[in-house]
What we know:
With about 575 residues, the chain is of the alpha/beta class. Helices cover about 45% and strands about 15% of the residues. A hairpin with an 8-residue loop joins strand 15 (about 485-490) and strand 16 (about 500). The longest helix has 24 residues, at about 545-570. The chain starts with 14 loop residues before the first helix and ends with a helix. Homodimer.
Amino acid sequence: MSATASDSIMETGTFVNCFLLVISLVIIPVNGGYDKERDALLKGTFPQDFIWSSATAAYQIEGAWNVSDKGPSVWDTLAHQGRVYNQDTGDVACDSYHKYPEDVALMKQMGLKYYRFSISWPRIFPTGEQQDGVNQDGVRYYNALINELIANDIQPMVTLFHWDLPQVLQDRYGGFLNNHTTNTTVIHDLFGDYARFCYQNFGDRVKYWITFNEPWITSWLGYGVGNFAPQHNEPAEGQYKAAHNIILSHAKAYHIYDDEFRAAQNGQVGITLNCDWGTPKTPADADAAIRYIQFSMGWFAHPIFKNGDYPEVMKTTMARKAQEEGRTTSRLPEFTPEQKLSISGTGDFFGLNHYTTVEVTDACCTPIENPNYDTDKDVGTGHAPDWPRAASSWLYVVPWGIRNLLGFIKEEYGDPEIYVTENGRSDHDQDPAIMMDMERICYYMMYTNEVMKASNMDNVKVKAYTAWSLLDNFEWLSGYSERFGLHYVDFNDPTRTRYPKASSVFFKQLVRNNGYPEGSEFTKYVENMWYFCHNTTEAEVNGYTGGASQISSLFSLFLAIPMMIAYSLIA
Length: 571
């Protein structure tokens, strides 16, 4: 089966199998307890200029890990040490280095007008340093990808750093640990050189730049606990040193664009931060929930979007802990006055990656023998028993969390323009493959409707929604055991053939309708699926329970599935 319009995965011959799969899902909760007001379907559309996109990252899809003069990244090193599930690596991954025209064709088929991808730093500068030489084949590849996108009326949104630090920079300078207290450290200058080169070579066509993707991951998992690349284990201080340097590196890249390129290229530069919504388990945990968010998203957002410095609750908490630990200075570094001025306001937009929600409890203030970032927050986290879990152990489906988080960003950071740069749901890798991925359809349906509520009801300036991911890909330490893609990739096939899943058909219709317009056939489909996706029925929501409720749920599916099949045949 090829990834063409005529080869739908929901063709008539597979209807029975797909229907049986959906029926099996009736007993699987998708969204826990239903709140009649909070969870009701909002009909309407997004603003006309709303951006619909999908996303990938270089190490997760490109492959070609040592083609031409590309240098090794810290993730090449980790994977080749056998530290990934099943000893998987990104050596080939989706082979998008060679198959990028096919990927662009998939986007065009879905009606997408934007695509978020990342540039691999060691594919451009093999050692991370421009003075050591430029890999012209890497420049050729990204030019070819960008040109292919533009030729198909798809705008590139480019991330400069999505975790694949050149291994040489880690070996030579300690990566993002390098001399963290100085404003002119080598890593800042080197990231600035890399950013400038990308602006010079691609900026005439790229109008959206993201400096760092999820610096929380690099800081804590990479330089704190050390289970992610570059595997530096220093959980008391490593994450704070790395984050300090990343924030300063971001500011440097922003100012380079602002000073040297903005006037001619007229683009935007932002950063993408990841955050789970933290909801208090009890009213007494309200302050702890805010502290949880400030220690995660606020760690980076407060300096960049507020005042150039860390959140006050983070500074006071870490100062108290320094006293408890008998330290003369806090483990949280300090910015100089000049650095604060340089950092503040260095975001043209707020990039947000959001997947899930946690319940937060207060855990203050017991002294800890071996302090680390997790204990520094003085919170506990868990999940409500009625929140269903995806294939990823950390991903619970709680759609209303994204609306709350978007509202928090609006109020806390001065009402910035927000680009949702990742949101999605994982399935297990299994045989037979999950192609009629109804739980992912439900996830996108519910989460995008919550984003529309934030936009249309709460007046949040949310400008974009990006599905993670365009393709099944290398999911970091989980390897290929978890699948987030709108398109299935056969990793046992040397040609890495792509196949559209049912969710790609749904997402195409969502993009085409720009939301859930009143009276549209697409919205009728969503209405028929809405209560099923929330593991309830219209009868139960309105106070009538009993055997008729299950019949009602099945009847909704009978109405919805033929419509989905019809969409697949005309897609």
